[in-house]
Write a structure and sequence with these properties.
mainly alpha, two-stranded antiparallel ribbon, 2 strands, 6% strand, elongated, transport, High-potential iron-sulfur protein, electron transfer activity, metal ion binding, 4 iron, 4 sulfur cluster binding
């Protein structure tokens, strides 16, 4: 490998490392954003912070992620943003098992 090729490789590697670092920070920031019932996507899915349907909450929906027992958890239906575990939306599907 010539000296010029090595220099180019190091520049590209450094840029890629910085890009990966900042993209991870952006994804974590997005996941920590709570869904507001007044958001357009929340209105479209009729999201409510407290479920109007007995026994059907975000905590027992197949779209929920995160640790069981947390008050707010990431939801796949809202691109990983946080929803209230006691919440509900119209695409609720019972968690298998």
């Amino acid at each position: 490998m010539s000296h010029a090729d090595r220099r180019k490789f190091l520049k590209m590697s450094g840029g890629a490392l910085i890009g990966l670092t900042f993209s991870g920070v952006a994804l974590r920031a997005n996941a920590q954003e709570k869904v507001s019932p007044s958001d357009a996507d929340a209105k479209a899915l009729e999201y409510a912070e407290k479920s109007p349907v007995e026994g059907s909450t975000c905590s027992n929906c197949m779209y929920i992620d995160g640790a069981e027992g947390d008050a707010y958890r990431p939801c796949k239906a809202f691109a990983g943003r946080l929803v209230n575990s006691n919440g509900y939306c119209k695409i609720w599907v019972k968690l298998p098992g």
